Amino acid sequence: MQDTAYTTEEHEALREQVARFLEREVEPVGEQWEEQGFTPREVLREMGRLGWLGMMYPSEYGGAEADIMTSVVFQEALSLSTFAGFVVTVLVHTDMASPHLVNAGSKAQIEKYLPSITAGEAITAVAISEPDAGSDVAGIRTRARRDGDDWVIDGNKMFITNGVHADLYFVAARTDPDAKGSRGMSMFIVEKDMPGFRVGRALKKQGWNSSDTAELVFDGCRVPAENLLGEENQGFYAVMKNFQIERIALGAMAIGHARTALRLTAQWVKQRKAFGGVLFDKQVIRQRLAMLDAKTQAARAFLYHCAWLVSQQRECVREVSMLKALTGELVNEVMYSCQQFHGGMGYMRETPIERLVRDARVLAIGGGATEVMLEEVAKRFYFD
Which of 192, 190, 228 shows the shortest CA–CA distance to 104? Predict the structure, then answer.
């Protein structure tokens, strides 16, 4: 049975397959991953064997050649997990980092790297953010200069998801020091063992604890000239191109987490006794949950509409920016009420709702803060 007007019975089968995987491989052991600070490589390899790490990539390189609607179904289904750090580990690899290779890579680059990416043998990260440049991509200071057959990269990157344990990094750096703003930026493929590159430190976070996050240091990092990704000085446009896919994936994460929090809270208030009855008997609780469910379902419909716009190759910066702002704020609104209705137990580390609350906060920050997204919407105001 179709779940939305945009999805099919095959999509429902994928959702069920992902749900079984989460129940078997993730939820029973995710607490261990939270403690160790990363998702084990073997889990990612298993997802590669299932064909989930290259949904929209060519089959000759291990991909599934699926459309974006199937990818969004997968993103949302995966985000029903209570371990968002695991989810973002996967989605950075599949939807935020490796697309840079597929979108801009040469045939030789794709043949060299993509099979191991789709198999989960090589995990990827995208290194754009810096201490003074996050949503403001044009503000990056990391530089790359040509030196014979190499490029030499100098600079620091910050808040890089998968940064500690990745094998491949897609790195943004300035290649024209005289260019202003967004001009003069290029992308490079950096392998983890290249000279002059190191993980500066693993970063401790409020949430997403089963995902590793790093500061990266490029100190005279020598990268072969053939590892320039795409055209020289055109990196900003490559970053902007993939932002729409990245922000849809983050919207799917927010919707999945909100749905899980509402499900857990409904179960809790229907059995938690207080004031002579169960909490669900209180009208204020029933109605608050009902309204949050309504908002989540409305946002979910918009998520799939945005995916459809991308599938039709329509201009949709306005709509995707709306989606990112809306879902990033909504998931935190949902989490606040769900934690409140769990009472003291919702503040305990032993409960999934406490973890979901911590993990959700970054969804209004990462991938384009709410304020930045709303400015993108405001620039494009029009009323039909």
Answer: 228
